[in-house]
Amino acid sequence: MATLTPHKKACTVNPLKMSAPIGAALAYLGVDRAMPVLHGSQGCTAFGLVVYVRHFKETIPLQTTAMNEVSTILGGLENIEQAVDNIYKRAKPALLGLASTGLTETKGDDVAGYLKLMRDKHPEWEGMEVVYASTPDYVGSLETGWAAAVAAMVERLADPSSERLPTQVNILANCHLTPGDIEEIRDIVESFNLQPIILPDLSGSLDGHIPETFVPHTLGGTKVEEIRAMGRSCHTLVIGESMGGAAEALKAKTGVDYTLFDRLTGLEASDAFIQRLMDLTGHPATRKLKKQRSQLQDAMLDGHFYFGGVKAAIGAEPDLLYALGSFLTEMGAEIEAAVTTVESPVLEKLIAKELLVGDLEDLEQRAAHCGLLVTHSHGRQAAERLGIPFHRAGIPLFDRLGAAHQVTVGYRGTKELVFELGNLLWSNAHEPHPDDWRLDHENTQTIARH
Amino acid sequence: MSALKDKVASVMEEPACAKNQGKDGKERKKGCGKALTPGAAAGGCAFDGAKISLQPITDVAHLVHGPIACEGNSWDNRNTPSSGPSLFRTGFTTDMGELDVIYGGEKKLFRAIREVIEKYDPPAVFVYQTCVPAMIGDDIEAVCKAAREKFGKPVIPVNIPGFVGSKNLGAKLAGEALLDYVIGTVEPETTTPYDIAVIAEYNVAGDFWAVKPLLDALGIRVLANISGDARYNDIACAHRARAAMMVCSKAMINVARKLEERYAIPYFEGSFYGISDTSEALRQIAKLLVNKGAPEELLVRTEALIAREEARVWAQIEPYRVALKGKKVLLFTGGVKSWSVVSALQEAGMEVVGTSMRKSTQEDRERVIEIMGTDAHMFDELPPREMYRMLKASEADIMLSGPRSQFVALKAKTPWLDVNQERHHAYAGYAGFVTLVQEIHKSISNPVWEQVKRPAPWERDGKDEGIRMKDEENRPQDAAPHPSSLILHP
To answer: Whole-model pTM?
Structure first.
């Protein structure tokens, strides 16, 4: 079990971390007919927009309250009101998801209070939900910002109910699940005759579908009515430690109990998920799932040769680091260095030689003698300098196609990951060379003398 | 903050700015930063603009003082390649935490500068101010001064917190930092009558490398390119240039004017996009150098080079002209490209059905009218919805724009080409123009458009049973509303 070393440097070099507000924005993007808005300077939004356009290769609806020096000092009430009103008039989204930034948190805007005042003043906004999450840039990371926005959505929207629909379950998804992962989870859950309400659901909005018309907000994702209906579900399945807070918030509001899965990558982790679904429903696993499990076992047997003894260096947010790190360990690799963005209890369970909060400079220094580097696309410079196999995982993935469709959850997703990483390691495997077995110079001389 | 305020005001009043030339003193003082509409704004902040303008200086460390957002969300995201050092692609930031916001970030910034110098030993460190430290009163100018004295190395404050204004303002303020702290601090080892400075050319996708061989062929030396593929030392020597070319007129006009004012370096505004603009730029450079004492034969050599290269480029694009003749192009960029690319496209036989005038000056507008013979095709705003409609209705055969509108075009199943910062091809100079024509041709003639427009098997009878309908059918009767009504289950 690794002990987490906190970040010590004054200068972060080659950041691994991205900021909480854009994490919140991404969570809102998983809601149907949503418009995320960052309460900050226009730049906060512009940078976030570019990140997601390049990652998903989609148009991203994301707006700003366009704060300037003066409005920041005087307070953002007026700008928020104008922003919400303009968006209402232009786009009429079902959900307007607001997130603060470092700028407006430093000033100390009471956004929740502002919103209350505005609601009274603008009865016409009825029909448009406004949700607010506090996400100062100087606290947490993309992962925590996403979680905060999901907690804010269930707190505001989920209706308490005494009714329990026996076939309806909630799924709270963490930020590392791709649209492809969400689809996979939905398929698995539906195979137990359950109807899942997944929040957020990027598989509806950012899966790359081609819409018939252009709309200024998201098209697809969790519907606001579905979030309201979460209080009537029989259970909540929570994916990722980072979603614990949101799960608690949902439970506090609606009384719906939950089970938290710290990861869905790997045979053991997938088994735990299937087991829970079997227990919940009393249904057996389908023939398809059984077949997939068998295929995964076979993939692990075929693949383990390439993973065994490989030293890996991983840089990722806590939930993703834990999922990928545990998977690699289970395949026989050793985690030489694990670098993460913020502290998280899930990492206490990670097996790694070294675990620290840090940046990609820290990762690069520790990866020099490793046989595998895993991090997001910004690891490309380090991988090039070190000349070691590089697997891209996390956000952003801006220099590869299909970031939205990488699947690494469940039996099938884990099998895909075994193949992808196994092939990467295989193609970089050492080929024999006559000099490989040469005795070293000193030894040869010693023998000659005798 | 008051020094920053004065700086912003002085940049806003820039007399060489074409927009300001139409205003009286009072109006100029009001500044030209259009008030942004909350909830309906697009574009980057002043910090973004400054970073874009200076980041291409390849051998210095660019250190961003602020919380993780400003650098963490944006680093190494521009394709402005270097022929040597790669330090500029390293992201440096103080990654301010909650305690730094409470206690102030100056000491952390100083320690960060020390760490950067000890580990990477760059010729200079550029320190960028952002909103949060500006709000809490961190004085980066004082910290940079202390660091300069302590480490004996240029440590340059770039005081552009995002909330002071737009990207464009940030570019100008970045120029001011160069004027205040860099330009004129080093003397070049040698000078020649053929030394020029190029301003606001960022070597996007290697653009400048497509132009430099032309200057090399004429014996013209680029003493300083501000700032594509630049070295710190080159920019520090920029004051010894004999003439300057201002490439992107709005971005750093203040630098051009002040180089003229302080060091008597004449400048002109030009573009390297398209055949005639490239030729015109070469002529202007030669003319200014000759005016400043270079031998007159330079003019003759320049004309000879232009004649040779123009003939070559026309020959190279000839095979494409037939295929591209009359093809309709929608151009969605702005500024100098609103006209320079228009003339380039017309040279290749295409028809421009619309050009966006965002970020453009009155002069830019006049150029468009001059080139197109009408103002009918200029538009200020083109909402994505209308853009999508135009493309879907095949009112254009291809759209040229930046990545923000890329997916509007692609979703409308219309060819699209990146002409902004994130592109992968150099389009400047004669060679770049050939590439542009080839890329447009490659895009328009790709069979993929025909493929993706084919109706689905369930659409062939004319009844659209799209994805949505299919999903409704599959839905179990007693189920709650399905979270993803757009997904077709296999």
So the answer is: 0.93
